[in-house]
């Protein structure tokens, strides 16, 4: 049973290195999926807003990780 848990943990680690990054991206995608259609903006802006939010999340996560490694 221990080996199955170890395998699953390694498999999870292949796809999710930083849990906060993954959680923030899933949250942003959910906000965009449910919130953007309700906003009075053209549909052509949904994709760029999704991309911009993902970039912001990535940059903030990288900056937070970099501050943690400098100390």
Structure description:
- With 71 residues, the chain is mainly alpha-helical.
- The termini are far apart.
- Helix 2 packs antiparallel against helix 3.
- It has one domain.
- The chain contains three helices and no strands.
- Helix content is 79%, strand content 0%.
- The mean pLDDT is 87.
Catalogue the unreliable spans. none
- Total individual domains: 1
Rg on CA atoms, Å: 17 Å
The chain-level structural class is mainly alpha
> Gap between N and C termini, in Å?
39 Å
Spatial shape: flat
The main β sheet shows up as:
none
Helix/strand order: HHH
Q: Number of helical segments?
A: 3
Mean pLDDT: 87
Query: What percent of residues are in strands?
Result: under 5%
Give the number of DSSP strands. 0
Helical content stands at over 70%
Question: How are the elements arranged and paired?
Answer:
Blueprint lengths: L1 H14 L3 H17 L10 H25 L1
Q: What would you say about this model in short?
A:
This protein is mostly helical.
List keywords for this structure.
79% helix; mainly alpha; flat; 71 residues
């Amino acid at each position: 049973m221990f080996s199955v848990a170890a395998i699953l943990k390694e498999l999870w680690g292949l796809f999710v290195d930083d849990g906060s990054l993954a959680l923030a991206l899933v949250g942003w995608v959910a906000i965009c999926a449910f919130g953007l259609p309700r906003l009075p903006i053209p549909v052509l802006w949904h994709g760029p807003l999704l991309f911009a939010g993902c970039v912001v999340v990535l940059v903030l996560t990288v900056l937070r990780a970099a501050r943690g490694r400098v100390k």
